[in-house]
């Protein structure tokens, strides 16, 4: 893990459980189905989707985060399959055509893009927002145009690259539909 995520998730009161606005726009406009959130953290997006009636699988590599997600889901009486798994080590596999929606927010693992494309059912969506390279050296960042290119064979419903001044970091956002 690039930073101490166990420590980051140790104080639940300091966490933001507001879902990503891009996901809110998408999830409220389509009928619920099966959703996968990659690198879900404490589940702000997974919990939101489950409240809307989505059947959610949420995967993260941090035990503290997954425990928070499970606790919050139980308290809210939501059924979420929260799975502790190391995506980089391949301990979770995205099954082909298993999801109506796959979301990825601020997590980059390039070798997952092909699995994401295969994992979304025809007509389903991929929604993501991932950091872009900027003047500061960071790991796990996209090159400009890279995310759009990864899904160029899909119907891209929305794409943007945003370069905001510090402390914000540049990011690419996409909503893409599998044909």
Question: In summary, what is this structure?
Answer:
This protein has about 180 residues and is of the alpha/beta class.
Walk me through the topology.
Layout: H1 5-8, H2 21-27, E1 34-38, H3 44-51, E2 55-60, H4 63-75, E3 80-84, E4 99-105, H5 113-119, E5 120-131, H6 146-150, E6 155-162, E7 171-177
Parallel strand pairs: 1-2, 1-4, 2-3, 4-5
Antiparallel strand pairs: 5-7, 6-7
| Overall tally of structural domains | 1
The H-level CATH homologous superfamily, spelled out, is Vaccinia Virus protein VP39
Tell me the number of helical segments per DSSP (H or I, 4 or more residues long): 6
- Residues in helix, %: 10-25%
Order of helices and strands: HHEHEHEEHEHEE
How is the largest sheet built, in terms of strand order?
Answer: 3-2-1-4-5-7-6
CATH architecture: 3-Layer(aba) Sandwich
| Structural shape | globular
By DSSP, the count of extended strands is: 7
Mean pLDDT: 90
Radius of gyration: 16 Å
Major pleated sheet: 7 strands, mixed
Rounded to the nearest angstrom, the distance between the terminal CA atoms is 34 Å
Structural class by secondary-structure content:
alpha/beta
Low-pLDDT stretches: none
**Beta-strand content estimate:** 25-35%
CATH topology: Rossmann fold
Main CATH class: Alpha Beta
């Amino acid at each position: 893990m690039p930073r101490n995520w166990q420590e980051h998730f140790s104080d639940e009161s300091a966490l933001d459980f507001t879902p990503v606005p891009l996901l809110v726009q998408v999830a409220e406009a389509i009928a619920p189905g099966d959703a996968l959130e990659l690198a879900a953290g404490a589940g702000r997006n997974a919990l939101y989707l489950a409240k809307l009636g989505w059947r959610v699988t949420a995967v993260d590599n941090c035990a503290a985060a997954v425990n928070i997600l499970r606790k919050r889901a139980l308290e809210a009486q939501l059924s979420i399959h929260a799975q502790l798994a190391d995506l980089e080590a391949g301990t979770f596999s995205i099954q082909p055509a298993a999801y109506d929606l796959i979301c990825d927010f601020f997590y980059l693992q390039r070798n997952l893009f092909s699995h994401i494309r295969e994992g979304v059912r025809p007509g389903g969506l991929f929604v993501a927002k991932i950091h872009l390279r900027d003047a500061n050296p960071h790991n796990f960042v996209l090159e400009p145009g890279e995310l759009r290119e990864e899904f160029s064979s899909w119907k891209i419903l929305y794409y943007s690259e945003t370069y905001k001044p510090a402390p914000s970091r540049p990011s690419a956002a996409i909503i893409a539909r599998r044909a």
